[in-house]
Amino acid sequence: MTEARVLGHAPWLKSGPARRVLALLNGGGEEARVIGGAVRNALLGLAVADIDIATTALPEEVIRRAESAGIKSVPTGIEHGTVTLVVDKHPFEVTTLREDTETFGRKARVAFGRDWMRDAERRDFTINGLSVDAAGVVHDYVGGLADIAERRVRFIGDAAQRIAEDYLRILRFFRIHAAYGAGEVDRAGYLACVSGRAGMANLSAERVRMEMLKLMVAPGAAGSIAAMGDCGLLQQIVGGVAYTGPLAAMIEVERMLGLPADAMRRLAALAVAVTEDAYRIAARLRLSNAEAKALDSMAHCWWRLAGMDEPAARRALYRLGAAAYRDRLMLAWARAGGVDAADWRRMADLPQRWTAPKFPLRAADFISRGIAEGPALGHVMTMAEDAWLAAGLPLEAEAVASIADQTVARFARDHRL
After folding, report:
1. Contact between 267 and 275 (Cβ < 8 Å)
2. Global pTM value
3. Which of 381, 382, 401, 400 is nearest to 392 (CA)?
4. Which range among 7-21, 163-177, 242-256, 312-326 shows the weakest confidence by mean pLDDT?
5. Which of 191, 149, 150 is nearest to 173 (CA)?
6. What is the DSSP letter of 136?
7. In what helix (H) or strand (E) does residue 299 lie, and over which residues does it extend?
8. Structural domains of the chain ordered from first start
9. CB under 8 Å to 135, separation ≥6 — which residues?
């Protein structure tokens, strides 16, 4: 099937670096088009970030033309026909038309060609199989235009074959649906994912992480994640219980608080009930140190934030800091349900209503009271901070001095000084 239409709003086709690359590669018996996600997003009226280009020209010819025009070229994947051209600091992946002759999971043996239809047929989903030429004409060989109109994500050709070529496409199926689809996932694709899920065991944790974190922040994350749970994929990924209800609640809490989607908050709601869960998820997905720390912080006794009064909330905010307090509170809120509860909103708004003061006592305050420098001093300061928090974080000089005196007296009594 071949269908074509003129692409409407795509200023990057009329001027700028992308237009320059197309002009460079067109002519002299060769043709170049923008392919994949940029075309899909333009048709859906969404922002276009990366612009990838396909060409009939062989990699050597792409490099030759770039050098003649004074454009930097980098052979980023030249064995598969990909050269990156850098124009006005914008990188463009330029790939020669090809077809897979043999596949090995994520790897494939390819042959270069000049057939745009064959090149489109080797891609993953119909909405990613579109191309647009320099004149703005969209070329569709796989039914992508109809699927974009229906917001439907379908594999190109036989779904099971596409998956067998690269088992990461199982996760991409749900992620692309969450980002661009509507309604239920395509049934044929869904059944093929269920049948092929054992192949995911050989995927690298880094690749799974990348897809999962993109999926977690997609607009339709709740629906796609629920579909994955129904077919047993979530347990295979997280290695434990998956809580799709709290995930949906977390998404609603983010919306109510006007916060952007956050992958770690959503992952915590989905799969983290205790700190051991956070450690397991961090290891399975090879999370960064910062990501693992965020999960661990949210998991630590989140249930204690449920039902707090204002003084307890202030103590928690002081201990955790604004960002960690907010995220842990949101996890407790999502797991408690009842996302419209006024008390939760009030506690979530605390960082905007109140700024935690600094602990007013310093080491010198205790040294002057007879505590020697060393481990004892640190211990006394910790005791004093706990007492100050329990007293409601007072700042009046008399109250602060009283806390220091009482702490030193208690320490002396406990240690028989």
Report:
1. no
2. 0.89
3. 400
4. 7-21
5. 191
6. -
7. helix 289-299
8. 1-150 (3.30.460.10), 152-228 (1.10.3090.10), 297-353 (no CATH), 363-415 (no CATH)
9. 6
